[in-house]
Amino acid sequence: MLITLEDVNDNAPEVVLTDLYSPVPENATPNTIVAVLSVNDQDSGPNRKVSLGLEATLPFRLNGFGNSYTLVVSGPLDRERVAVYNITVTATDGGSPPLSTEAHFMLQVADINDNPPAFSQVSYFTYIPENNARGASIFSVTALDPDSKQNALVTYSLTDDTVQGVPLSSYVSINSNTGVLYALQSFDYEQFRDLELRVIARDSGDPPLSSNVSLSLFVLDQNDNAPEILYPALPT
C-alpha cells in the first residue's frame, strides 16, 4: 500500500537578514543596496511560495530574486529629519490561510555636510558707549549647524574690511570659537559714530560651508568735551 502525505501549511516562512549596510549616507542615490535578505518555507507547493512586503511609507523598496531580496533606496534621505529607520519586513506564504513572519532591523543614516551654519537673525545691531575700555566685550553672535560632529563644528571670523582706511581688525576682534566680539581700542564718538561689520560662520566639513551676517555697531556719545568759547574774528 502506498500512502501519500498531503502537505498542510503548518510552517511559517523564515526571514534571514544576510547583509546590512548601515549606516547609509544621506546622499545615497536611488537603487543603492542597504540590506540583503533571504526567505524560506519548509512546506511544499503553494504553501512554500513566499512573498516579502515592506511599509509603503519608507523611502526604500524591495527587489526580489527567487528566495533572495535586496532592500534599496527609493527616495531621498535626510539625516536631519530622520536619523534612524526601524524597518519591519513581513514574509507571507501562499497557504490557505497564509502564515507570516516579521523581521525587524535598524538602519542608521550617516551625515554629510549639506547644511551651512545659520544665524538666528538676518542682521544684528548693538551699541557701545565711547571711551570704552580696550578689550571690552561688545556683542556675541551664534550660528547653529544641524549637521553632526565635524560638520556641525562652527568657527567665526570677520571679513577683511577697512574703516577710514584703517583695517577693521585694528578696531574689533572676534573669538573664533565663541562668536564674542571685543573692542581693540577705545572708540571716540567725535571721530566716527558707527561700524559696519560682517561676521562669517564656517563649519568644519569637507568641503566647509559658510554663511555671513551683518552687524551694525553704533557708538554712543558721552559728555566728555567741555564747551569752547569762540571769539568773533576782529575786523581788518
Give the helices and strands, then pairings.
Blueprint: E1 14-20, E2 24-25, E3 33-40, E4 50-54, E5 60-65, E6 68-73, E7 84-93, E8 100-110, E9 118-119, E10 123-129, E11 137-140, E12 143-144, E13 154-158, E14 162-163, E15 166-167, E16 172-174, E17 180-183, E18 194-203, E19 210-220
Parallel strand pairs: 2-8, 10-19
Antiparallel strand pairs: 1-3, 3-6, 4-7, 5-6, 7-8, 9-12, 11-17, 13-18, 14-15, 16-17, 18-19
Structure description:
The structure is a single chain. This protein is an all-beta fold. Helices cover about 0% and strands about 45% of the residues. The chain contains no helices and 19 strands. The protein has strands at about 15-20, 25, 35-40, 50-55, 60-65, 70-75, 85-95, 100-110, 120, 125-130, 135-140, 145, 155-160, 160-165, 165, 170-175, 180-185, 195-205, 210-220. The strands form 6 sheets. The chain has a 4-stranded antiparallel β-sheet with strand order 1-3-6-5, with no helix packed on it. Strands 2-8-7-4 form a 4-stranded mixed β-sheet, with no helix packed on it. A hairpin with a 2-residue loop joins strand 14 and strand 15.
